[in-house]
Amino acid sequence: MSNAYIDKFPAEAKVVKAAFYSSFLALALGGVFGVIQTLHRTDIYRFIDSADYYTVLTAHGVFMVITFTIFFLVGVFTWAVTTSLDRGVEDIRFTWSWVGLMTIGTVMAGVAILAGFVDSIDISASVLFTFYAPLQAHPLFYLGLVLFVVGTWVAGADWFRSWWAWKKENPDARIPLPTFMVLTTMIMWYIATMGVATSILVFLLPWSLGWIETVNPLLTRTLFWFFGHPVVYFWLMPAYLLWYTMLPKFAGGKLFSDPLARVGFVLFLLLSTPVGIHHQYLDPGIAEGFKFIAMTNTMFLLLPSFLTAFTVVASIEHGARQRGGTGYFSWLKSLPWRDPVFAGMALAGLLFAAAGFSGMVNAGMNINYLVHNSLWVVGHFHLTVGTAVALTFMAVSYWFIPQVTGKELWNRSVALIQVVLWFIGMTFMTNSMHRAGLIGMPRRTAEPQYTGFEFETAVGSVGELNAQIALGGVLLTLSLVLFFANIIGTAFGSRSDNLPDNGYAEALSGSDDAPRVLDNLKLWTAIAVVLVIIAYSLPLMSIVDRGGLFGPDITAFPANLESVRFLAFAVEHLGTAALESAGTLAWNTLPEVIR
Ligand code: HAS
Ligand code: CU
Questions:
Q1: H-state helical runs in 86-176
Q2: Domain 5-519 coded CATH 1.20.210.10
Q3: Is the pTM of this model over 0.90?
Q4: Is the pLDDT of residue 567 over 70?
Q5: Is the Cβ atom of 229 under 6 angstroms away from ligand 1?
Q6: Which of 279, 329, 331, 383 to mutate to test ligand 1, by most ligand atoms within 8 A of the CB atom?
Q7: What are the extents of the domains in the chain?
Q8: Which InterPro entries match (predicted)?
């Protein structure tokens, strides 16, 4: 008999397994759309209509960054709370209820997106994963998102319930580190989702149902980014949880400092939300001063990641020295590089260091003007969520899936090749995306062909960059195929008694060294809310004041479309000769239309 998670918590293991399998399904779908779009964009292989590109892009984005990441992390959080409190969930039916809500929500939103491919169905949601106005989706999409987010709220309540029950029995004990990380992340999430809940329930859903005529696009954008920045930490913090509490163990050592880890998570809780405006440096209608405050907060927000880099690398070094490593750098050779779980997570960390660099560039108000809306940003987030998070999740699955199924991993060599392929694929793809962004190549564009001019050079041409992007994309697809082969192979294997024990890393400097105030969650919540109020109340008031709660009484989107249609009509039917006069006509009538 082994000491795996499933042996101690069989009922919870089923929940965690369901969450993981749902996330992998989303990963598979997202992967298919990913390769379609990488080959389409780079003009290497095209079989979809460019008009469908946005449906593909929406499906890729939503399945990857909403469904894959969040389903996986609720599994990790359930494991973390039950393992570190050493008690099962309070009521397993309650636990299944949030799994159910999240699943129904995903199916609704997914159907709304995929229906966009079928012309005969009058449902679509090609609004990209940022889904703000003026793009509008079918109500089914917004309703699905609502159910999904409510599901995560209920999940958080489930974990808080476990903690309260545990606290009654252990009134003086410190919150175990994994549970502490789950609770701080969830408080951050509750604050952050207020933005998207308001945006959907008050504006986007009623607008899409036809209950209100117009919305204020800047207001819905701002409410989206209120949530849109912290959501990236909702993906990152579970990866950090695994880097702090599991990676040292896989490296053969202990966590360097439990108190530092707590400080890092408290800083994320405080600073994740009052920075969202750094996605809106180029939005007209928000005063520069508010943007400056967002930039300053963002620079402070680098701190917990620097702390993490220090603590996690120190822990890994400790592990290497336990394994006989010596020297300033040669200890690196003593790490278990043949273990796919360790190798995948460490490689994810390495690429995240580069991702942090491009994040700092993004965050500078003036440099942002150079990279905003270019492929640079896409490079940035494929290193962050696409590698630091996704590769960590895939690598750690090779440890988790045996824990929750009771079956041995099907093939460790294939697993090692898989994580290394992901690392290489992302290196090609993101490095060239960053470079392409610097020469101005736009993101979210189906047809950036750059043909019709001569620009001959061996390195640095659009052709070279595109080739690297496509090569990277293909390697990633191969990597995914290997991942699914391994998961399916494992799932269909037979039960084994030869599994590693469940558990997480001990700390060199443990929770007793951490000041008690760090565990005062009420205090940190209060400060976090105050910071959000300071950062957002004035900008929101001024946006509403200038543009109206439900918009400035113009329908910007259709008005522009009308004039474009008018021009297209003119060109088609009257020929180019008439274009100039049509243009003048449009120009003169435009103010009329917009009024
Ligand atoms: Fe970002 C845009 C700024 C982190 C995701 N970001 C995006 C978008 C996404 C995204 C999805 O200020 C695009 C949204 C859209 O569609 O428009 N980002 C930052 C900054 C950070 C940052 C300052 N981003 C993330 C993370 C993400 C993510 C994390 C997902 C998970 N980002 C921006 C800005 C924009 C932006 C602007 C808007 C751009 C625009 O114009 O549109 C920071 O949090 C980064 C801090 C990271 C570090 C690195 C620390 C290094 C570590 C590695 C340790 C090494 C190990 C390995 C463990 C300072 C922790 C050891 C191994 C051994 C072998 C020893
Ligand atoms: Cu951000």
A1: 92-114, 139-169
A2: yes
A3: yes
A4: no
A5: no
A6: 279
A7: 5-519
A8: Ba3-like_Oxidase_I, Cyt_c_oxase-like_su1_dom, Cyt_c_oxase-like_su1_sf, Cyt_C_Oxase_1, Cyt_c_Oxase_su1_BS
